[in-house]
Amino acid sequence: MHNTYGDNYRLTIFGASHAEKIGVTIQGVPEGTIIDLKNLQAFMDRRAPGRDRFSTARREPDQVVFEKGVSEDGLVDSDLITAVIFNTNIRRKDYDNLRTVPRPGHADLTARLRYGKDIDMSGGGAFSGRMTAPLCIAGGIAKQLLVKRGIRISAAIDAIGGQSEPEKMEQAIEQAKMDGDSVGGIISCKAEGVPAGIGDPMFDGIENRIARIVFGIPAVKGIEFGTGFRAASMRGSSNNDAFYYDEDGSVKTQTNHAGGILGGITTGMPVEFRTAFKPTPSIARQQESVDLSSGENVSLTISGRHDPCIVPRALPVVEAACACALLDAIMEAETSRQ
Ligand SMILES: Cc1cc2nc3c(=O)[nH]c(=O)nc-3n(C[C@H](O)[C@H](O)[C@H](O)COP(=O)(O)O)c2cc1C
């Protein structure tokens, strides 16, 4: 497994859900940079499990420990940063019956097919939503570096279980939980202040770069930029964003159906995208599966601690992914212009 993203702001995520620790190495942060450690921890806390009534009962403090590259007061003193989080709340026995019986909707089967039957899938192994904690470390630092460049990223929940009103979203989660089931949802994300002219055509466009890292978030099944799939049923006259000169002399668009990207390159308008999350695969109600050791069809009941909906906890993760992608692309542009 490589789990590496980026060329200029380069991160590699390591560990597994029930390993001693999970973490990330980061290259590209200039020595002498000061990381606001309190701000970073506050960002981590938005994702940490066990914080609200819908979140998994697995309580983890998700305290960031810098093993290399960052001093106690946040000073970056090396090109290579290593940050870890120790896993404290592990219950392996919850996963005993999953050793040979894969959970429908999870990566248990495909992980074994790819890496062999002895792969440690306890707690979801390297496929766990827990691996998004190190992504948030890298993303939290990236967000701070972007703020210094005048760029702000924020994500919001658009829908849960097909509902878009906050009260109905909560009810959808509550009802799914009572039914021993789960629901998915949609997160929208916006990056404001992104300079125009970042990105490249074809394979290195800003859409490509964001999509690649966003699909690294477990349970993501779709992404659309700007009007996305709705553009397919619009006419050019309504989908095209008309240009105008702003007071500062820059070219802006009257609408932003393009989501701030044309030809893979930023327009200077906010970069906007939406991400679809599937329902949490591990559900309490009985499901049909197979026993890979006996070769029989079996019924499966999953124990353990699982969110009936992962969307609220994924909000900072989407922001983190967006921040890493944009910072990597912006650093590339800054280097090539020097
Ligand atoms: C923050 C977060 C928390 C998650 N928690 C759970 C969980 O408690 N139980 C579960 O079955 N899946 C959970 N997932 C989703 C699985 O990790 C994911 O569905 C699985 O690895 C299969 O990958 P895929 O859905 O991308 O194909 C979580 C995902 C995220 C982003």
In short:
By secondary structure, this protein is an alpha+beta fold.
3D architecture notes:
The chain is α+β, with helices and mostly antiparallel strands and 338 residues long. It has one domain (4-337): Chorismate synthase, AroC fold, CATH 3.60.150.10. The protein is built from seven helices and 15 strands. The protein has helices spanning 37-47, 108-115, 132-147, 166-178, 206-214, 236-239, 311-337; strands at 4-5, 10-15, 21-27, 65-68, 80-86, 152-160, 185-192, 220-225, 243-245, 251-253, 261-262, 265-266, 271-277, 287-291, 296-300. The strands form five sheets. It has a five-stranded antiparallel sheet with strand order 1-2-3-5-4, covered by helices on one side. Strands 6-7-13-8 form a four-stranded antiparallel sheet. A two-stranded antiparallel sheet has the order 9-10. Strand 1 and strand 2 (10-15) form a beta hairpin. It is globular, with a radius of gyration of 21 Å. The two termini are 34 Å apart. The structure holds flavin mononucleotide. Flavin mononucleotide (FMN) binds at residues 56, 106-107, 124, 127-129, 132, 217-219, 278, 280-282, 306-307, 310, 313-314, 317.
